[in-house]
Amino acid sequence: MPTSISLSPLPAAARLQGCTNLKLRQLTRRVTQFYDAELAQSGLKTTQYSLLSHVLKLGPLRPLDLALAMKMDASTLTRNLKSLIAAGWVEQVPGVDGRSRLITISQAGRDKRLAAQQSWKQAQTSLNRLLGLERVRALHALLDECQEMLAQTTGNEA
Question: Across the chain, what does the average pLDDT equal?
Fold first, then answer.
């Protein structure tokens, strides 16, 4: 016979209001808009800059390994890579066997990322100034801690 655990309701003052997922998504959209506004002059979006940066740092690598490193769904990665491949900034090259592929950054991709790097730095500096360095440090620490805790419950890497 299954047992049920009786949980006492939290006092009203201890209850959270709102959906954490919604609040995080709203913040993420605002931050993305902030960075995208700075990166617009370079012709890149934040997602594209991030992909170019990861491929430059980690590549050449399999798409699956890139998705894991970026904590991104493989189908989302494939969709986001299409525009970079079409622009000639990223290339798919044969892997170690005939069936595998590796993602690598082209010279044009290196140049594009380098041109956008100053805009990204400006966005980062402006956001730090706007929010304050202590708040940004605290936010980074809290986000890292939450990712680690969630990774332990889901069995995924942090």
Answer: 89
Separation in Å, CA 66 to CA 55, 56, 59, 101, 113:
7, 11, 8, 12, 17
Q: Give pLDDT, residue 155.
A: 63
Distance in angstroms (rounded) separating the CA atoms of residues 105 and 93: 10
pTM of the model: 0.80
Our count of domains for the chain comes to 1
For the ranges 12-21, 28-37, 83-92, 121-130, the lowest mean pLDDT is seen at 12-21
CATH number of 64's domain: 1.10.10.10
- CA dist., res. 53 & res. 59, Å (int): 10
**Rounded to 5°, angle at Cα 144 from 140 and 148:** 170
| Identity of the residue numbered 73 | D
Distance CA 100, CA 3 (A): 50
Asked whether residue 92 is assigned to any structural domain, the reply reads yes
Q: Does the pLDDT of residue 7 top 90, yes or no?
A: no
Residue 78, domain extent: 43-154
C-alpha 149/C-alpha 158 separation (Å) is 8
